[in-house]
Amino acid sequence: MTRSEREHQAKRIVQHYVNVANRQKKVTVNHFLQEQIPRPTIYSIIKKFEEFGVVGDKSRSGRPSKLSKRKLTRLKRLTDQKTGISLRQIAPKFDINISTLSRHLTAMGITYRKKKRAPKYTDKQLEEVPTRARRLYRTLLNGNFELVMDDEKYFLLHNESIPANRGFYTSDPSAAQPEVKFKRTQKFELKILVWIAISEKGISTPFFSKQQQAVTQKTYLNECTKARLVPFIEKYHNKKKVLFWPDLARSHYGLKVIEYLDENSIHFVPQQKNPQNCPQARPIETLWSILEQMVYAGGWQAKNINALRRRISKKINELDIKVVQTMFSDIRIQLRRIADNGPYGACSF
């Protein structure tokens, strides 16, 4: 029986003894004997109540704390809302064990948390992003728009940075193969650029490029916008209802690209109103992470660029459109959070 259960039982016995049995011990004893409560236990509880006037257990004094209130205040000042803190370095200052130090921090509600990835903003961006996010939020709220966005990402032949591939299991490290136990890197690794556009209706045909540099305006116009983006919009959307939210890359806002979008009556978010560096509001950024996990699952590695391209195409076709739709439903919420609390206020933690 736990302490709380024991105290609850004692309260029931005392309440019966005072309110029902009119302080007649035998009446109370006979009543609770029917519940299989031992006779000595019932008498002991009544005796304790009569002598000390209490029902539950008194608070235990326990072992005295190794840290005084003054030291606890100092400990809180050294650790709370701080980074770069090592309990191994702090413990000797208080002459206590690390486990004891950790227990005191937990009692004060201070726990260790791992940092989350988030964009780094300049002071100017921190000032401009909420305003731009609010404008875009109002545009989406007031208009019956079908949102479309695009982005590009580089993929390597292998990727040990995803969680499942960061480590390995072994009974004998010396027997493990080099490709298993080492995170191998080279100076200029082969990679492929992948571009896609997405909306709640689906995912466009991807564009692959072996080039090492960023997409140029000419490539973006011909291979992405003309060959894939506009056909994707015409297939799944009414162009008059579409609002295209491009990435802020320079090629995406090239003069010829803007002219082509205007010629095809495709509304887009103007460059001066596009929130800078806000992956937390763009579900395509999350989609890249999901696709990356799928491509490199099980420690998969490509032997060449063509194999990597086939693998990416296959995994794009396997993406669940319901996941994309769920992410799109949160865009307005995220934009509102950015507008009200700043870009860091919308980062998950």
Account of the protein in words:
The chain has 349 residues and is an alpha/beta fold. It is 48% helix and 9% strand. The chain has 3 domains: 3-52; 69-107; 123-346, 2-Layer Sandwich (Nucleotidyltransferase, domain 5), CATH 3.30.420.10. Strands 1, 2, 3, 4, 5 and 6 form a 6-stranded mixed beta sheet that branches.
Fold topology:
Elements lengths: L2 H18 L4 H9 L5 H14 L16 H11 L7 H8 L3 H10 L15 H20 L3 E11 L21 H4 L9 E9 L2 E2 L3 E3 L7 H20 L5 E4 L9 H9 L3 E2 L14 H13 L9 H14 L2 H8 L2 H11 L8
Parallel strand pairs: 1-5, 5-6
Antiparallel strand pairs: 1-2, 2-3, 2-4
Helix pairs in contact: 1-2, 1-3, 2-3, 7-14, 9-10
InterPro entries: Homeodomain-like_sf (IPR009057), RNaseH_sf (IPR036397)
GO molecular function: nucleic acid binding
Task: State the share of residues found in helices, binned by percent.
Answer: 40-55%
Radius of gyration: 32 Å
Q: How many individual domains?
A: 3
CATH class of the largest domain: Alpha Beta
Treating each run of at least 4 consecutive H or I residues as one helix, how many helices? 14
Show unreliable segments: none
CATH superfamily of the largest domain: Ribonuclease H-like superfamily/Ribonuclease H
DSSP summary, beta strand count: 6
CATH topological fold name of the largest domain: Nucleotidyltransferase, domain 5
Mean pLDDT: 88
